[in-house]
Amino acid sequence: MKTKVINSPDLLKAASRKREATRFDQIHLDKMNELMPLVKGLKYYIKTYGCQANVRDEETMRGMMENIGYFPAENVENADLIIINTCAVRENAEDKVYGEIGNLKYLRKKKKNMVLALCGCMVEEPEILDHVLNTFKEVNLFFGTHEIANLYNLLYQCLTTGERIVAVESKAGEVIEELPVRRNNNYKAFVNIIYGCDKFCTYCIVPYTRGKERSRKFDEVIKECQQLVDAGYQEITLLGQNVNAYGKDLDEGHDFADLMEAVAKLGIPRLRFTTSHPWDFSSKMIDVIAKYPNIMKFIHLPVQSGNDEILRKMGRRYTRQKYLDLVKEMREKIPGLSLSTDIIVGFPNETEEEFLDTVSLVDIVKYEAAFTFIYSPRKGTPAARMVDNVPYEVKSRRFQELVKHLEVNIEKSSKEMVGNIYDILVDGESKNNKEMMSGYTETNKMVHFKGDNSLIGKIVKVRIIESHTYSLIGELVNE
Ligand code: 5AD
Ligand code: SF4
Question: Whole-model pTM above 0.85?
Answer without folding.
Answer: yes
